[in-house]
Amino acid sequence: MDPVLHAEMTQLLSDEKDYTTERATLVKDYPTWKKRVELATNKGMPELADEAAARVEEMRLRISEIDIELEMIEDKKKRLRYEAKRPSGDELRRSNALLNSMKAGGLIDPDEVALNMKFEKLAKKAKAKSDTPDDDDSDIALDFEK
Questions:
Q1: 3-state class percentages of the chain: helix first, strand second, coil last, to nearest 5
Q2: In whole angstroms, what is the distance from residue 5 CA to residue 83 CA?
Q3: CA distances from 129 to 9, 119, 121, 122, 143 (A)
């Protein structure tokens, strides 16, 4: 794996672990703070209830933010996995060198074969469209120009 991609993946995994730990702590503490809001309200302490309610809202928002961050990290990890599987310049150079050696060795040219196959398909289509016998090739040439 490319060292740069490896470093990025390592950073993402570290961030993911930090966010997961923070989220677990918030989820664990959330019910406690909800109970504090209820308790302060029942005891007739509105200022304390408001502070606890503000803390509950902060925790809820932070959990939502962390969930979004974790989704973004997962997307980045998928992108890095894809990039790690992509061929580097070495593979491309090797494949081009192999293709050039095949062409130089007098073997079949894959580009020429592909073009010939396309021309054969066009000729078959033109032949199917034409009502004249195979002797008259002028209609085929006109169909290719279209």
A1: 85, 0, 15
A2: 8
A3: 58, 15, 12, 11, 9
DSSP secondary structure, 73-139, as one string:
HHHHHHHHHHHHHS--HHHHHHHHHHHHHHHHTT---HHHHHHHHHHHHHHHHHHHH--S-TT--HH
Chain segment 17-71, per-residue pLDDT in tens: 999 999 999 999 999 999 999 999 999 999 999 999 999 999 999 999 999 999 9
CA distance 80 to 76: 6
Contacts of 84 (CB under 8 A, 6+ apart): 1, 2, 5
Structure tokens at 72: 């973004």
The confidence band for 106, taking pLDDT boundaries of 50, 70 and 90, is low
pTM of full prediction above 0.70: no
pLDDT tens track for 111-143: 777 888 888 888 888 888 875 555 555 554 544
- Would you list the domain boundaries of the chain? 3-89, 98-145
CA angle 41, 49, 33 (to 5 degrees): 100
